[in-house]
Specification:
Order of helices and strands: HHH
Number of helices: 3
Distance between the termini: 45 Å
Helix content: 55-70%
Strand content: under 5%
Shape: flat
Structural class: mainly alpha
Radius of gyration: 15 Å
Length: 92
C-alpha cells in the first residue's frame, strides 16, 4: 500500500492548514515532542515566533473571507500560541 495515497491524507482544508502550522509552533516551543525525553531539544523561539507571525499574516490576509468557525479557530489558535510563547520565553 502506498503511504502517500490520497485516501490516507486529510482533505486540504483551512482548518488543517491552521493545525499544521500550530503543530510546528508547538514543536518549536518544546510543547510537543515525539522522541525520547532524554533527546528533547531546547525551544527555538525565533522559529516559533515565525510560525505565530505566519498565522497572524494569514489572519490579516483572509479577513472578511473566512467562515465563522474558521475565523474562531484561527483567533483561538493565535491567542493560545501567543500565551504559550510568553510562558516558554519567560520560563528559562
Amino acid at each position: 500500500m502506498d503511504l502517500m495515497s490520497d485516501s490516507l491524507l486529510p482533505p486540504p482544508t483551512f482548518e488543517f492548514l491552521i493545525a499544521s502550522v500550530r503543530m510546528q509552533v508547538e514543536v518549536q516551543l518544546g510543547l510537543l515532542h515525539l522522541g525520547d525525553e532524554t533527546e528533547r531539544p531546547e525551544p527555538n523561539l525565533p522559529l516559533a515566533r515565525h510560525g505565530i507571525d505566519t498565522l497572524a499574516m494569514l489572519q490579516e490576509k483572509t479577513k472578511g473571507n473566512l467562515t465563522w468557525p474558521e475565523q474562531r479557530e484561527l483567533e483561538n489558535t493565535l491567542a493560545e500560541l501567543r500565551i504559550r510563547f510568553v510562558q516558554v520565553s519567560t520560563a528559562g
